């Protein structure tokens, strides 16, 4: 199954040492590294492209002509789905939650540049957007189109195969990895890494508040993904840090801002306020609590999200 994909990403993505940041956290040289899935390929990059390689392959096999997905207004997944569709000669419909902004910014600029058809629903919520995706696909079908509906984040067992592949890359690039740290949003990246690593304890997911009951979902999805990949289900319990969310999904937190500033000023590593900044905040907190040993070899997965920095609210918060 790992070979049944359409090439969209530039793989393998690089791994770089974060020695200055590691030193600031009291870690030995060479212990802290980053897997740069932010430089994975088209349209500003990001983790969703690995999932889309598998999902788009299925869409092509079914003869579909339109990709349909959704998320929040600044959805990285929506942006990359639109880019993947255009790369493959397909159309794209995006269902975005909440009121449309007066002016496009961040990911919305790229959605428009890529020519995606955007539908807005009144209120943002995980279930509401999923229902909107299904409704949009049904409407396209009534109009004689051949839609392929993709859940939020591309987080299905098929999509998560992309991160089984990523876990294999990490194992080939870095010897004796003790822990992989990643943002846990819709759950597919976390689940795929756990399936690929073969044990939940080897992956620390930092909950960003995107999906309710994320731990139970990651457990279920990791098992299904491992089965699809022809591998044993990952052992142990899902490892999840629920402390970095803040008041709600995409809420600003002091820990996230500190993580963004430390990473940028010590490593030139640019993180976003919604996913990677909170994932790094979780890594920093775990190290400060002594849950990560000074000599442990830790790989931080940079899942992208750069366009979110260029929304007015995030830009003002980070530069104030």
Question: Notable features of this structure?
Answer:
320 residues, Rossmann fold, 2 domains, globular
Largest sheet geometry: 6 strands, mixed
> Approximately what portion of the residues adopt beta-strand conformation?
15-25%
Sequence of secondary-structure elements: EHEHEHEHEHEHEHEHEHHEH
Shape: globular
Strand order of the largest sheet: 1-2-10-7-8-9
Domain module count? 2
Query: Helices and strands: which structural class?
Result: alpha/beta
> CATH fold name of the largest domain, please?
Rossmann fold
Number of helices: 11
| Text of the CATH class of the largest domain | Alpha Beta
Distance between the termini: 48 Å
Q: Count the strands?
A: 10
Overall residue-averaged pLDDT value: 97
SSE layout and pairings?
Layout: E1 15-17, H1 19-24, E2 32-36, H2 48-61, E3 66-71, H3 76-87, E4 91-97, H4 107-113, E5 117-121, H5 126-142, E6 147-149, H6 157-173, E7 179-184, H7 188-197, E8 203-207, H8 214-229, E9 239-241, H9 254-267, H10 276-288, E10 298-302, H11 312-319
Parallel strand pairs: 2-10, 3-4, 3-6, 4-5, 7-8, 7-10, 8-9
Antiparallel strand pairs: 1-2
Helix pairs in contact: 2-3, 2-6, 3-4, 6-7, 6-8, 7-8, 9-10
